[in-house]
Specification:
about 120 residues, 5-stranded antiparallel sheet, 5 strands
Length: about 120
Amino acid sequence: MKLLKDYEAKKNISFPSIYIDFFSKYQKKIPHGLVGTDLFNGVEDLNLWAKELLNEDNTEDFLKEDDFVFMMHQGYMFWYFKINEEENPTVYSYFEGDLKPTKRGKLKSFLAEHI
């Protein structure tokens, strides 16, 4: 939990409790349904990797300052939500070759479906 609290303080953000619960449960062991997926770990900024993917893909960088990339799968797809939006924010995804992100539903349902 200290990792998330430190990141929140550094970035002046507030994570939704749904994400905090998910992170707390799976920060050390990835859920079976997400094998091969990188989760935010405080060391690597998945937002930076996502921006690199968009650049390599010659896709417009649609990520905004309040977007938080919380998962990236093998460097060719990522999922994100807006920070400080609401307790159960909408999740969006980008897959290599797409022109724009796709809405994937609310965070709570998205996580329940994938873990």
